[in-house]
Amino acid sequence: MTSHACRGKCTGLLWGFFLMAILTYLLLYIKLTNRNTPKHHMTAYWLQWIAFMDSKKINSAFDSSNNESSKFNDSINCISQNLTTEILDLCQKSERGATDNGFIPFNKFEYPLEIDMNDLVSNLKTAKNVSIKPIFSYPYTFVKSPTWMCEYRDVRLLILVKSGVSHFKRREMIRYTWGNYTESGVVTLFLLGSTPHVMFQRRILQEHHHYGDILQMSFFDAYYNNTLKTVGGIKWARNHCNQSKFVLFTDDDFYIATELLLKYIENMQRFERTSVYRGAMWKRGRPIRNELNKWYISRQDYPFDHYPDFVAAGFMLMSIDFVIDLDLAIPYTKKFIFDDVFISIVAYKLHVQPSHMNSVHINKFPYNREGFRQIIASHGYDRTSTLQQAWWIHQNRHLHKSGRKSIRAYSVRAT
Ligand SMILES: *[C@@H]1O[C@H](CO)[C@@H](O)[C@H](O)[C@H]1NC(C)=O
Ligand SMILES: *[C@@H]1O[C@H](CO)[C@@H](O)[C@H](O)[C@H]1NC(C)=O
Ligand SMILES: *[C@@H]1O[C@H](CO)[C@@H](O)[C@H](O)[C@H]1NC(C)=O
Ligand SMILES: *[C@@H]1O[C@H](CO)[C@@H](O)[C@H](O)[C@H]1NC(C)=O
Ligand SMILES: *[C@@H]1O[C@H](CO)[C@@H](O)[C@H](O)[C@H]1NC(C)=O
Ligand SMILES: *[C@@H]1O[C@H](CO)[C@@H](O)[C@H](O)[C@H]1NC(C)=O
Ligand SMILES: *[C@@H]1O[C@H](CO)[C@@H](O)[C@H](O)[C@H]1NC(C)=O
């Protein structure tokens, strides 16, 4: 009786479960594939983020430590913050005021060459005889240099996208979305290093033949050569595109609202801003001393307890006067492995302060229409589909009609 009664109901139930399982799977799949970065990248990001938040906590705890009504007891500040062991270690050392075993406090910052950088730069500009010898040699050449991109053209903004040699699809999608602004006086070029991979190089040459927007340099393309890439970009901008008032350095996994950025720049020009160095600013960022971390830096290479305030590498907006000064000062500054920190060190020596842009996000901005009306940039768009989606939301387009068509058109072109 019971088994008979169950048969009808149970098949229904089973089907129900089956459908639910499929639905859940689909939902999870959509959610997971919308995730921004590959795993190893994410982990590194999280570690950096945690360290950043922790350093903020430590700083705020220290700032309030002189305050009588502060709820923190000085000697337990570090413990009560639930810090990672590494940060806890730093925290306790600074708490004891130790510099012997800890790191040198930033107010004692020194970095080769110890010279008056502004003085040097103005001497170099006036072609005075400078006897100081450069310490950062840049023997690399431009394998592909599309100098015509800036010639005879009214350029308002030069966008240099640091891209990996094998990221063909990302470049294609950028050209198709936020990079397609040539008529508005925007020149977008992709900065690449070299590759021993013959097939890759062949495809890059084809790509360049087709679009003419590849700026390839002779050093080996690798994450830890990003400083060489940025320095090469600075050189090129100064020598071949200095009529552009602004230069933006960005990465190929960034979403950028080009016309909002142009508005932002227009506004700055109205106030004749000089020495512009802007983006998502990291105040008093702490060097990471964990050897497993992507951003590990040894005590020998950087002995101070924090970096100069810097603008995160994925979005560095600079005015051309600053770019020119950087290009002149860089040969006289010791190379540093992370390009954003390196720029901040040179900027510090030139007495140029970075400033923060609220509309630049170093984490992935969630898709919502209101938000996309205001943000200028967001990181984490390494999948061509998510970049396209973000772009459509930004343009307030509907996904169902023209969207599908363009996706198909795109996938035909990219393969
Ligand atoms: C001390 O901290 C309290 C609460 O955190 C704050 O209201 C007060 O202004 C602080 N005093 C000083 C001198 O910083
Ligand atoms: C702070 O904490 C230490 C140890 O936890 C304790 O010995 C000291 O009395 C505390 N100081 C104050 C002002 O509460
Ligand atoms: C620290 O971590 C422990 C366990 O992980 C938790 O119980 C505690 O509430 C945390 N304290 C703070 C201040 O976050
Ligand atoms: C520049 O200075 C160096 C030594 O300081 C000297 O050898 C050289 O001749 C000078 N060059 C010019 C053009 O004055
Ligand atoms: C760029 O936009 C124009 C229209 O504004 C369009 O005709 C062209 O096909 C676009 N280029 C790419 C690469 O999508
Ligand atoms: C950076 O480029 C130089 C020159 O091509 C190369 O010798 C070096 O191995 C590269 N660095 C990394 C980390 O790949
Ligand atoms: C600007 O670019 C032109 C070539 O386009 C070059 O001759 C000039 O020296 C550059 N200016 C500076 C300050 O580098």
UniProtKB/TrEMBL annotation:
Any one GO biological process: protein O-linked glycosylation
Species this chain originates from: Mizuhopecten yessoensis
Known EC number: 2.4.1.-
Family statement drawn from the similarity comment of this UniProt entry: Belongs to the glycosyltransferase 31 family.
Record GO terms (molecular function): hexosyltransferase activity; UDP-glycosyltransferase activity
Membrane topology, record value: Single-pass type II membrane protein
Keywords: Glycoprotein, Glycosyltransferase, Golgi apparatus, Membrane, Signal-anchor, Transferase, Transmembrane, Transmembrane helix
Protein name per the record: Hexosyltransferase
Record PANTHER family: BETA-1,3-GALACTOSYLTRANSFERASE BRN, BETA-1,3-N-ACETYLGLUCOSAMINYLTRANSFERASE
UniProt-listed Gene3D superfamilies: 3.90.550.50
Enzyme category, top tier: transferase
Membrane-spanning segments: 12-30
Localisation: Golgi apparatus membrane
Gene Ontology CC terms: Golgi membrane
